[in-house]
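Table S2 (continued). Query chain:
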Amino acid sequence: MIAAVSSKISFGEKPTLTGDLVVLRPVCVADASALAAAALDPDVDRLTGTHSRFSLEALERWYSSRAEHDDRLDLAIVERATGETVGEVVLTELDVHNSSCSFRIALFGRRFFGRGLGTEASRMILGHAFETVGVHRIELEVYAFNPRARRVYEKIGFVHEGTKRDALCWDGEWIDAHTMALLGDEWVTHRGHVRPAQ
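Corresponding output:
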């Protein structure tokens, strides 16, 4: 059941969500080292369109302040089998009046790709947004050179809505960004199974 539309929606609550493969929990200062290590991977920078590098201290300050914000939700993706922090999922740009937000996910290296971790993490945070918080619309952008991610988003239920031409300049080449979105009633058809936190 999708939560009723409300002008009081908020990401002030920072939940822990448990799935079969991963646990999503609020980010903490200790996660900054995993993010800093990921920043050294050129694949991670490229797929996320990240041009800037941040020091470990800057990342620690960033992660330590995430709990203060009720307009965004930053959760670490922890692999259950190993206890390793493998990425993050973020709901951001909350528009209370239009009951919408943006979504992004980053896995901290190619060794975590193709194992279902990102798909499950995405389904879990989307389920929280639609079913608990009461968001109506979630949108994202995916770069044209990342068809693997686009296939995952389509599998979850996101619909391609348009293309931002030449949105990213990477290594001297202009790259399009595809805009995709998922609505609450569409989520009912595509949602995955999420168990309560243990």
